[in-house]
Hints:
Elements: H1 2-30, E1 34-35, E2 40-41, E3 46-47, E4 51-53, E5 58-59, E6 64-66, E7 71-73, E8 78-79, E9 84-86, H2 99-104, E10 117-119, E11 124-125, E12 130-132, E13 136-137, E14 142-143, E15 148-149, E16 157-160, E17 165-169, H3 173-182, H4 189-193, H5 196-199
Parallel strand pairs: 1-4, 2-5, 3-6, 4-7, 5-8, 6-9, 7-10, 8-11, 9-12, 10-13, 11-14, 12-15, 14-16
Antiparallel strand pairs: 16-17
Amino acid sequence: MIKGVRRLLLPVLRLWREARRQIFYARLRSRGVDLAPRCQIAVGSEVSGRTNFGFGTTVTGPSIFKGSEPIKIGRYCAIGEGVRMISSNHRTDVANLQYRLQRRLEFDESEASRGPISVGHNVWIGDAAIILDGVAIGNGAVVAAGAIVTRDVPAFAIVGGSPARTIRMRLPQEEIDRLEQLQWWLWSEEEMARHPELFDQPGQSPTVQPRDRSEQI
């Protein structure tokens, strides 16, 4: 009996979740957030209007993307739960540190920032990591859970800690150079499917460039 009711309710629950997600996405777009196709951003995330999510990027749990400077995230990134990207911060060169008081006094509310946040393609950012203003993260990098990133992260580096430091590189430099040249994240998924040696076998990559660039998305 209970199992039968569950089976009946599951399609309804899926429809409700999808409707809730689409309403959330519509709100984000109304604020100026740029959501590329196949993005999945966790409902409940706080996203500023100057944020750009690349094709196929996922945010698996409620996270925060805020600040006065742009935040640009590349294609096929995997972003965990509770991640914070903060592209600006409080000024420390004036007497008052609270925006609310500054606003009531009708004084300058300008924020301090070292610049936009830029996240490359196919970057993995673990749960509860914090990315601060002015940081650029290279393609294929890994940011460990709980890391606080205050400086640029090289492509294909694994970083962790507070402040985050390079733990090691994911791959030998020769392989990194090949993947950067291939730029497989720009391929269509049909093209990706034709290269299992790249996605299934560690340390392998195609020996030739993809021929049909018209299939890129």
